[in-house]
Design a protein that fits this description.
Helix 3 (40-63) runs antiparallel to helix 4 (65-101) and helix 4 runs antiparallel to helix 8. This protein has helices at 5-22, 28-31, 40-63, 65-101, 104-109, 111-116, 118-126, 137-158, 160-175, 178-190, 204-222, 228-256, 274-289, 291-294, 300-307, 309-327, 338-356, and strands spanning 368-370, 373-375. It has 382 residues and is mainly alpha-helical. The chain has one domain (5-359, 367-375).
Length: 382
């Protein structure tokens, strides 16, 4: 299967952008959503779903449901292993540092751990119920990978319109309090005794829409039935208008403190407000329309990071914890201290990417027939 290096680079860019956003430095407010009402999280989750749909649909067609499920579960297990290591870093090292050095940043990050006690916090974190701030995107990603085999298989049996319809319905319900309703049921009937805010900032019921749509795009791509360039050619002019207007609104809000009042929910990141979906779609159409120009920015470091996204993604949290330790009681790191932190972080991420990178395997000689076309089946995912 041919690698799309610019898309690999896009995933690497999302990781670099996410890293700069998470590191507690003076530039954080300026790299957080600089392109409008979109963040690295939307891009990273969508591109991850895109590759998941493309690779594992081909695997389903070539080797069947059991093989596809086994591969995806193995990838999920690897991510869960990283999750456990990050929890050890948070509970075993960061929490101890907070006790001995009075690190206020770690106290704020792990307040439930200190309030509920280590045994309770560790148990709830291992079953993905307790999702500490900063690390909460990892359990979200694990859950999305867990549902991926069922989504791909079900769509191949009953069609995508039902899957996409259900996904949109869940997103819409999430805008009207589905998460809070489910939490009430879990609290009153199943004895879940953890505050809702400690179950992660991301509203799972809303963000699943990005994942499901990403898988759908990946599956259509694998089938050779994904006319994204045609869509972009028809929509890039109105998309550009939307992009510019929302970009201007974003910086007006950033500089002048514009208050949206009752309309703020439409812009909310954690509940994936409707404006964010519109903005993400607009930016995507413009990027696809001018993909030949974007490809010039597909540098080797970004491509390497994108191709080794899982270990790079998890490694960046280590340096975020280091940054929290360095900032002490301040709200972030200022002065020259932030320079070696940023440089050292990206040097380490590149090193991890190079170590994790694997050479391309030759495409197998056998092919899968789809709609009269001959396409190469997927190789093992990186």
């Amino acid at each position: 299967m041919k690698r799309e290096l610019d898309i690999d680079a896009g995933r690497g860019l999302m990781l670099a952008w996410m890293t700069l956003t998470h590191l507690p430095t003076a530039i954080t407010p300026w790299v957080n959503q600089p392109f409008g009402y979109i963040s690295a999280s939307e891009g990273f989750i969508f591109l991850s779903a895109l590759f998941t749909g493309r690779i594992y649909y081909r695997l389903l067609r070539r080797d069947g449901m059991p093989k596809m499920t086994a591969k995806l579960l193995w990838r999920t297990l690897k991510l869960y292993g990283y999750h456990v290591l990050l929890l050890f870093l948070a509970f075993g090292i960061a929490a101890r540092y907070a006790f001995t050095s009075h690190g206020q940043g770690f106290y704020n990050l792990l307040d439930f751990y200190f309030a509920a006690g280590p045994a309770r916090a560790i148990r709830d974190a291992l079953v993905l119920v307790y999702r500490p701030p900063l690390l909460d995107i990892v359990p979200l990603y694990i859950i999305f990978l867990l549902i991926a085999p069922g989504v791909i298989y079900a769509a191949s049996r009953i069609g995508w319109k039902y899957i996409l319809g259900a996904s949109f319905a869940f997103w819409l319900a999430a805008q009207f309090g589905l998460r809070e309703g489910v939490y009430w049921v879990l609290t009153h009937y199943f004895g879940i005794g953890i505050p809702l805010n400690e179950m992660g900032a991301f509203n799972l019921w809303a963000w699943q829409l990005v994942w499901i749509v990403g898988i759908w795009c990946g599956v259509r791509w694998a089938r050779g039935d994904f006319p994204i360039r045609e869509w972009a050619r028809r929509t890039w002019i109105p998309a550009s208008v939307v992009l510019v207007l929302l970009l201007a609104l974003r910086y007006r809000q950033q500089i002048y403190g514009l208050d949206f009042g009752h309309f703020a929910y439409f812009f909310d990141k954690w509940h994936l407000g409707a404006i964010r979906i519109i903005d993400f779609a607009a930016v995507s159409m413009v990027l696809v329309r001018f993909r030949s120009l974007v490809q010039a920015f597909a540098t080797r470091p970004l491509v390497l990071m994108g191709q080794s996204s899982l270990p790079v993604f998890c490694t960046h949290f280590v340096f975020c914890f280091l940054g929290i330790a360095l900032m002490g009681s301040a709200d972030r790191i200022y002065g020259w201290t932030q320079v070696p932190l940023i440089v050292g972080t990206f040097a380490a991420l590149l090193l991890v990417a190079k170590i994790a990178a694997r050479p391309e395997r030759p495409a197998p000689l056998n092919t899968v027939r789809e709609k009269g076309r001959s396409v190469h089946p997927a190789v093992a995912p990186q």
